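Summary of Year 1 activities. Much of the first year was spent building the evaluation harness for sequence design. The harness presents a backbone, in tokenized form, and records the residue chosen at every position. We chose the following record to illustrate the format because it has been used consistently in internal testing since the harness was completed.
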């Protein structure tokens, strides 16, 4: 009797899908935005995101469990905490900036905020760490590492 072929997963194995399990809800990324803006207290985050308090509480808890942020106590009576990005959370900066740039271009007439570096406006770019060249779609290739998958989907039986 020959062994049965391994069942293919229902969906492509994907780091983007894994990240969206943690970050794919609106209030999660808006809370991260506020932490990047320097707003660490719950009341600030609620006010600036417009999130319902219970939903924001759940999102902050999930972000903490995922290692994106940490709570730090700043008051004893009553006990109160601030939220701070961890290294994993700080590495979301390019994601948040890419969403800002895209939103500025396609969703609003005038950018509500701009990013500046030593006094001049900055728009993030994507460049190759090896050669420093700015990346474009034409120069990129996709290498699939998930067994049973190729760029257009599952490998046919």
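For this record, the design step produced the sequence shown next.
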């Amino acid at each position: 009797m020959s062994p049965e072929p391994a069942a293919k997963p229902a969906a492509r194995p994907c780091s983007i899908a894994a990240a969206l399990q943690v970050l794919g809800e609106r209030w999660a990324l808006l809370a991260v935005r506020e932490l990047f803006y320097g707003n660490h207290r719950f009341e600030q985050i609620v006010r600036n995101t417009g999130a319902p308090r219970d939903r924001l509480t759940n999102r902050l808890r999930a972000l903490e469990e995922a290692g994106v942020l940490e709570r730090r106590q700043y008051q004893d009576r009553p006990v109160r905490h601030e939220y701070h990005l961890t290294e994993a959370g700080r590495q979301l900066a390019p994601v948040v900036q890419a969403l800002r740039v895209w939103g500025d271009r396609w969703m609003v007439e005038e950018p509500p905020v701009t990013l500046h570096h030593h006094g001049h406006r900055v728009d993030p770019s994507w460049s190759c760490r090896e050669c420093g060249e700015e990346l474009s779609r034409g120069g990129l290739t996709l290498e699939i590492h998930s067994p049973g998958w190729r760029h257009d989907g599952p490998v046919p039986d």
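The first strand starts at residue 69 and ends at 75. Quantitative recovery figures across the full test set are reported in Table 2.
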